[in-house]
Amino acid sequence: MVIKNAKSLIKQRGALLVEMLVSLVLGVMAVGLVTSILVTGYRVASNNTLDLLVLQNLTITSQMMRADLQRAGYADAGSSTVMLAGASDVVEVSGASVGFVYYDPNAGEYQHIKYKVENQKLYSCEKKSVAIISLAALTDCYNMFDQDILAVKSFALSSIPLQTSGAKTTMSDLYIEAELTDGRFNHAVTTQIKQRNWL
What we know:
The chain is α+β, with helices and mostly antiparallel strands.
């Protein structure tokens, strides 16, 4: 009987080793699976973040441009609508540039603004002065997007005149399309703007 017990103990030790090896393999597989799920989740979250970055930049920029374009032509109380020097309309469109001016009563000066696309970058050029200047004179510009991240694919402003018996204004559609510099996550935003300052 003693010999039988010793044999069964030897068998149990061998079985224990096999069980430990199986457990170790299953543990490694479980850790690998969890790591794979975490890495996949990180990639999905990173892609969603970049996608939202493009969309958020476009939305914020179009809202800012809309607010500025609604002020276009505003003159001091009782004055007529103002235009950039040499311009034929309140919002002057020239190639890939859009410019306008409005009076800023807080500063007591005219606020000149130009938006332009150059080398897949959207720039804003601004200048305050007591005299009205031309679109070409607006040269102090800054990039509206992070140039290392976003590239502007398209930028356009189209306008339709609106007229009543005694006044006229315009309804404009602003279109901006951008994507990451590597070509991923292309988005476009269209904003409709009714000019507030009637001629």
